[in-house]
């Protein structure tokens, strides 16, 4: 099978790979580039565990072909903390007991980040809506919702 | 949060300084940074992908299997059938002497449930394995199937599993696990009211976010490292050793964080065949359930049917209880004989009843084999029992909480399965629940204690 080149930035770093045409971004990130923070829970667009941010928008990497990402800026949860300091969302998930098995966590944090980037002071309903594409089988969601609301509050304090 | 220290004050030191204090989870920092390593977060050069050819029928004899077209498919490296598996018929609990071995790793002469593994396809890519799997031709003679437990127990029902010889597990106590305590007939004869009800549940899938799977890497020294999300590491290692007829010293199992289990990852399903694939090809093998397989193939919680007959007095005492429980194992035992047995011990609930008669059956049907899930064997039983308790309270016009105080077990009470009650705290929990839920009960119940019969 002919390989196709792809080039994009991942968490600010330039990446270039030759991939099989038809490879999903999820598989390219995990198997080729070695960023395993996006998880594959269904490979069919139903669980949200593979969520990443492409050019500021939330995307399911299992339904995105890697070759469509040429020139894109991609963000994953592994790239959120800076210099060992946790992002406010990561801090809030940790403090609010919003992780159990942790498998949904990277996808949840991506969905929450896109929400807060667009809506810095979300209502509870906004949070529920933003996370509605992400399945968690462990926590019962409430601690996750609280974590996102807490992160939003701490962001606005930083901004003030 | 309020910590009430008055209960059992004489039994403990007052140094419960952890309770009510938040403590960070030790695994959270790596979860929130995406650094936690799950079994699938590994990639080995030359890794093969395993896909199963599965039975489209609930019950069928296998006349022949033709893998010739599949073998020619580009990318296919190895095709495995029953004859490649050194010890193909196994059962998980054989490790604790619960036999007989009744399940095939790959089906040989028969399939007993829709989705049963028949042929394992190993290929360079997932896609090639999938496409080749579709080219395997299996000639089936479809057999009558049975899906209902009571139908399965009737004479003349299709025999699901020949290794058992009948459609139920044979306990040392006979066709069911039995508990006999007191004289249940005399209890019913003296009761003011009798209530018999039937409770049923459907299978329940755990649906973990991470699907079941493993990755096996052959080491240079003839050993195999198996990265797995099993919840039962040593059960899996020992069963793999039996199935592969390989000493345990050749098998190196590496577990780690499981992406949700809930009991659904205690069966030994993916590891032995993946190790065999790695052994026969000399290459790393990845066998990971698709979401569809996780939902359709992995064991659910068993369907159950519970028939409860209680004799109760107007003053609130339950004087007799007769329970017949049915656990739907599906086509194979896995953990179900144990689950059904747990139910037998559990059906009196946390109540002291002088006359008890319990039969629990582990039944084989042509449904997906069931297995462990959070409190299996007792969870559905508790649902049935507590609904029954509410119905009994209504029947005699009593408050449901006060009704439970009257029947609550206390230290020293003999349970129906001949285990004296120790460390009971039901009364104290209900007293606290009564306050917390603002569900008042008569003062005499608030002065009761688990220590002794009084009040
Ligand atoms: S893996 Fe992409 S949505 Fe589930
Ligand atoms: S923490 Fe396990 S799925 Fe969300």
Automatic annotation (TrEMBL), chain A:
GO MF annotations in UniProt: 2 iron, 2 sulfur cluster binding; electron transfer activity; metal ion binding; succinate dehydrogenase (quinone) activity
Domain of life of the organism encoding this protein: Bacteria
Stored Pfam families: Fer2_2, Fer2_3
The protein's Enzyme Commission number: 1.3.5.1
Keywords: 2Fe-2S, Iron, Iron-sulfur, Metal-binding, Oxidoreductase
InterPro entries linked to this entry: 2Fe-2S-bd, 2Fe-2S-bd_dom_sf, 2Fe-2S_ferredoxin-like_sf, 2Fe-2S_ferredoxin-type, 2Fe2S_fd_BS, Beta-grasp_dom_sf, Diverse_Oxidoreductases, Succ_DH/fum_Rdtase_N
Requisite cofactors: [2Fe-2S] cluster; [3Fe-4S] cluster
Chain ranges of the 2Fe-2S ferredoxin-type domain: 4-80
EC class name: oxidoreductase
Sequence similarity: Belongs to the succinate dehydrogenase/fumarate reductase iron-sulfur protein family.
Name by which UniProt lists this protein: succinate dehydrogenase
Native source species: Mesorhizobium tianshanense
From TrEMBL, chain B:
Species, as recorded: Mesorhizobium tianshanense
Gene Ontology molecular functions: iron ion binding; oxidoreductase activity
Protein name: Aldehyde oxidase/xanthine dehydrogenase-like protein
Cross-referenced Gene3D superfamilies: Aldehyde oxidase/xanthine dehydrogenase, a/b hammerhead (3.90.1170.50), Aldehyde oxidase/xanthine dehydrogenase, molybdopterin binding domain (3.30.365.10)
InterPro entries according to UniProt: Ald_Oxase/Xan_DH_a/b, Ald_Oxase/Xan_DH_a/b_sf, Ald_Oxase/xanthine_DH-like, AldOxase/xan_DH_MoCoBD1, AldOxase/xan_DH_Mopterin-bd_sf
Top-rank taxon: Bacteria
Domain Aldehyde oxidase/xanthine dehydrogenase a/b hammerhead span(s) in chain numbering: 33-144
Pfam families xrefs: Ald_Xan_dh_C (PF01315), MoCoBD_1 (PF02738)
Keyword tags: Molybdenum, Oxidoreductase
């Amino acid at each position: 099978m002919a390989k196709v080149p792809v080039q994009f930035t991942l968490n600010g770093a330039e990446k270039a790979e030759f991939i099989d045409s038809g490879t999903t971004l999820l598989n390219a990130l995990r198997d080729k580039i070695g960023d395993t923070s996006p998880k594959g829970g269904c490979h069919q667009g139903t669980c949200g565990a593979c969520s990443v941010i492409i050019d500021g928008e939330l995307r399911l990497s299992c339904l995105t072909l890697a070759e469509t990402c040429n020139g894109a800026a991609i963000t994953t949860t592994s790239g959120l903390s800076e210099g060992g300091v946790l992002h406010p969302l990561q801090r809030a998930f940790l403090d609010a007991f919003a992780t159990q098995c942790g498998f949904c966590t990277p996808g949840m944090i991506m969905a929450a980040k896109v929400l807060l980037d667009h809506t810095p002071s979300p209502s509870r309903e906004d949070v529920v809506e933003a996370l509605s594409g992400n399945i968690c089988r462990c926590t019962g969601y409430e601690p996750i919702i609280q974590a996102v609301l807490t992160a939003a509050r701490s962001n606005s304090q930083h901004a003030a | 949060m309020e910590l009430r220290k008055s209960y059992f004050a004489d039994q403990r030191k007052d140094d419960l300084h952890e309770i009510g204090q938040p403590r960070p989870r030790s695994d959270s920092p790596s979860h929130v940074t995406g650094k936690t390593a799950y079994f699938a977060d590994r990639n080995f050069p030359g890794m093969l992908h395993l896909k199963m050819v599965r039975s489209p029928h609930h019950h069928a004899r296998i006349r022949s299997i033709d893998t010739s077209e599949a073998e020619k498919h580009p990318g296919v490296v190895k095709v495995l059938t029953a004859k490649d598996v050194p010890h193909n018929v196994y059962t998980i609990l054989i490790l604790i002497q619960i036999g007989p071995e009744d399940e095939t790793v790959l089906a040989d002469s028969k399939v007993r449930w829709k989705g049963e593994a028949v042929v394992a396809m190993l290929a360079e890519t997932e896609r090639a394995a999938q496409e080749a799997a579709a080219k395997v031709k299996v000639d089936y003679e479809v057999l009558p199937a049975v899906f209902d437990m009571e139908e399965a127990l009737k004479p003349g029902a299709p025999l699901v599993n020949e290794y058992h010889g009948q459609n139920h597990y044979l306990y040392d106590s006979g066709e069911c696990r039995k508990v006999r305590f007191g004289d249940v007939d005399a209890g019913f004869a003296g009761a003011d009211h009798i209530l018999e009800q039937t409770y049923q549940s459907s299978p329940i899938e755990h649906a973990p976010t991470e699907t079941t799977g493993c990755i096996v890497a052959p080491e240079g020294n003839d050993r195999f490292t198996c990265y797995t999300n099993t919840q039962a590491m040593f059960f899996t290692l020992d069963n793999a050793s039996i199935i592969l007829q390989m000493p345990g010293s050749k098998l190196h199992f590496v577990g780690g964080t499981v992406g949700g289990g809930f009991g659904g990852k205690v069966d030994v399903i993916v590891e032995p065949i993946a190790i065999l694939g790695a052994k026969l090809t000399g290459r790393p093998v990845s066998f990971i359930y698709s979401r569809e397989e996780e939902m359709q193939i992995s064991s659910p919680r068993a369907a159950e049917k519970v028939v409860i007959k209680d004799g109760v007095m107007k003053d609130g005492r339950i004087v007799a209880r007769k329970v017949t429980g049915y656990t739907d194992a599906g086509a194979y035992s896995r953990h179900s004989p144990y689950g059904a047995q747990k139910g037998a011990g559990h059906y009196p609930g946390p109540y002291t009843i002088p006359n008890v008669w319990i039969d629990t059956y582990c039944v084989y049907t042509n449904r997906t084999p069931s297995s462990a899930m959070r409190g299996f064997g007792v969870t559905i039983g508790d649902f049935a029992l507590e609904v029954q308790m509410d119905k009994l309270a209504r029947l005699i016009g009593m408050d449901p909480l006060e009704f439970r105080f009257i029947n609550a077990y206390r230290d020293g009470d003999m349970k129906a399965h001949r285990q004296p009650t120790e460390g009971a705290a039901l009364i104290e929990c209900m007293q606290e629940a009564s306050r917390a839920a603002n569900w008042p009960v008569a003062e005499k119940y608030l002065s009761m204690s688990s220590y002794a019969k009084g009040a």
